[in-house]
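Many introductory courses stop at the sequence. We go one step further.
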Amino acid sequence: MRDFEKFRTINDLDPNEQLEYARNYMDENIVVIKKHLGVFNLQRLKRGFISRIFFRNEEITVDNDLVETNCCFSLSNLKIPHELFLTTYLMISSNLKVDGIFRKNAEMETLNECLGIIKCISSNEIEMYKGIDKIKSKFDIICITEAYKAMLKVYGLPVIPSSYLEMATRISRIDDICERKVCSKALIYGLPFLNRKMVETVVYVCFMLEEEFRKQQSKCQMDLKGICVTLMPNLFKLEMEKVRIEDIKDLSDILYFWFRNFREFITI
């Protein structure tokens, strides 16, 4: 499967440098950001002293050590949760020439068994390579991709924080493409550190899948937009029955816009 070009990104910087770089960008574009997102959300994204007083920390925390992955655009490997690393590896190393990936659902009992093995590997109850061999021999790519999706919402907090939902829908309704990009970039820069790294790896993997599906020239495989529609509820950790239909469309559209332009947004 094709690897994409690496380049220097905001995730290559140390945390203090990331904050400084992000705040400088927001200060340079303050008129546009305030116009569409307001002062309140601007302060949230800048994550400064005022943000720490008024907003809770929405960075994902994990029980196990983080693991390095090279499934990213950044020059340096990114550290992500072990479970996400495992499901990413399982997915991209499997046979992807199977129709219906991300379209078909696995049986819940089968999916839970697969997730249970992944959890045992992450907690060192099963040796990693033995566990991977067991999963590959027992579960098909449909189940593995369902496990990947599930891993995006197993944490206590969403990958894209709940407090960013309103901002995301606002950005999706900005008609001017340049201003939509400015606000999108500010939101991505304003993500908690680990969350942003997780998003980068997800985008990178989606680009790999899109490239592979394009080669297959199959009408049964999704393009990037379709993949974004399936991943959106998991990244935002939505309770779909509580979300308005029009907001679901807006969030799917803006997620695709972010993914398609992600390399531009994170380049420094």
